[in-house]
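Table S2 (text version). Query chain:
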Amino acid sequence: FFHLQKKRRAATARRQHLKSAMLQLAVTEIEKEAAAKEVEKQNYLAEHCPPLSLPGSMQELQELCKKLHAKIESVDEERYDTEVKLQKTSKELEDLSQKLFDLRGKFKRPPLRRVRMSADAMLRALLGSKHKVCMDLRANLKQVKKEDTEKEKDLRDVGDWRKNIEEKSGMEGRKKMFEAGE
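Corresponding structure-token output:
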């Protein structure tokens, strides 16, 4: 048991030592990268941005301003072109990733909640603030007049149902029904 604990401690100590060595290596690599970036930046600035020498006369100063404005415009045009290209490629990338997602076919349908909403609220949600018409579902229904059918008239004319049963009960009632049928 004691021997296993020593092995575990040794393995843990070795793992921690390796971890600290890797971290030290990573820190030095990051520092080297930062220094290389700074040198690259300085080289680029020295190449593209020569030191500014201000002329003494007003005429030469105006010429310098015109040159600088022309350079600024060309740089702005380049920046705009690269922005448009970036937007276009990002849109294409998004479309392609959506197509890839659709081709995979593994779409997890989100759990839907049941929401009670009136027709007006639904139209307002779909159409936004443009929707101002109140939707009355019963407004377009036809008006139907009740027509008196013969059965309803007969039922109204009969009156009390007990009298009708008494008249048709017994042999006399059956005789009357038989005669009425003929």
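Notes on Table S2: Residues 56-106 form one domain. The helical segments are 2-48, 58-104, 119-127, 150-158, 161-168, 170-181.
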